[in-house]
Every structure is written in C-alpha cells, then in structure tokens.
Design goal:
Length: about 200
C-alpha cells in the first residue's frame, strides 16, 4: 500500500472545519485517512462547563488571538508521484478570490501544457484552458458564468473554469478539494467525507 505525501508548506490555519478522508483507487490502492490528515482536524480548544473569571478570559484572549477566516484547499495533482502515491498539496487562502489567483499565487499547477502566456487567455474566460474538477466545497463557489456554461457544456457538471470561479467571501471558512487538470489526470480516486463522532451526535 502506498503512502500519502503531503506537500504542505503553507502554514495551514487551524480553523478548517472540514474533516476529510480520502480513498484513492489507484494502482496501489492508496488511502488518505483522517489520521494522515489529522493536522487539518485540529480545531479550537473550548472550555466546557466552566466560566473563566474575567482576568483569565482576558489572558486567554491575549495569548490566543482569533484567527482570521480562511478557506482550506486540497489540490490533487493529475499525476502520481514517482513512487506511485498521489500528489496532494494543501493550502489556505482568504475567501473572495478567484480560484485561478489562489492556485497561481500558491504555486499550484493550473494550465498544464497551456502554461505559457500566449497559450492561455490570462483569466479572461475565453480560452477554456483553466479547467478544474470540484470534488468538495461547491457550495463555497460562485455560480457558473455564461462563459463557463459555453466552454464546459460537454464536460461533467463539477468541472469549472478557475478564472471564472470565486471562492467564498472574506469571512468564509470551509474546505475545497480540487482535482487539477481533470482532462489529463492519470488515475481515478474516490472521495469520502468523514464526520467525526462528536459532530454526528
Ligand atoms: S484562463 Fe482562459 S478561460 Fe480561464
């Protein structure tokens, strides 16, 4: 069984609210488990059943400032790593931005063979080369534009043009899972969302 390699150099925020479990059906049957992604699951520590006195509350606020809202992303590459495991890149970014900008700003491959400036329209919505597959988090995304409907009318419904897709707003939190370059991907994988026991009660 292969192992998951997480290329996480982004300083992920601890306010991710999603709890993820990936099952990848690759040639090596790799599984992304909640254990592998346990750092995503770290949430805020809450006191239960007691009310801190005022000094204590002030000290707590002073030492643990509220993190600004952000959205977590898991970008799955279209190709496996040399050892046969999936290549997943975890990032975090404020909402209200185009998915294209988030990907390019975070060194996530978007255009594949169309990366050179003259081979794509640079975000104008006319070339149709910035396609992504939305695996999780479509509720955070803006509705499809007319340009997307035109370019993607023969593609699966969860394909989007990254340059036309706005992710959430400035106060959004959540998780978005994106398959990069879906038209070039070399492996199939299945995504399963896992809700922790304490939230399913
Ligand atoms: S960059 Fe050309 S359609 Fe998105």
């Amino acid at each position: 069984m292969g192992t998951l390699q997480l290329n996480s150099h982004c300083g992920l925020s601890s306010n991710f609210s999603a709890y993820l479990s990936f099952k990848l059906n690759t040639c090596s049957k790799t599984t992304f488990t909640s254990k592998n992604l346990s750092f995503i699951k770290r949430g805020k520590i809450r006191a239960v059943g007691t009310v801190p006195d005022q000094d204590q509350a002030i000290n707590t606020e002073a030492t643990q400032p509220e993190e600004p809202p952000s959205i977590g992303f898991a970008f799955v590459s279209s190709v496996l790593l040399p050892d046969g495991t999936p290549d997943v890149h975890l990032r975090a970014a404020p909402g209200g931005q185009k998915l294209r900008d988030i990907m390019l700003d975070n060194d996530i491959e978007l255009y594949g063979p169309y990366a050179r400036p003259l081979l794509n329209c640079g975000g104008g919505g006319t070339c149709g080369t910035c396609i992504v597959e939305v695996v999780e988090g479509k509720e955070l995304l803006s509705p499809k534009t007319d340009k997307e409907k035109e370019h993607l009318k023969k593609n699966p419904k969860n394909w989007r043009l990254a340059c036309q897709t706005t992710v959430g707003s400035a106060d959004s939190r959540g998780m978005v899972v994106i398959q990069q370059l879906p038209e070039w991907k070399a492996h199939e994988w299945k995504y399963e969302k896992q809700v922790p026991a304490d939230e399913s009660e």
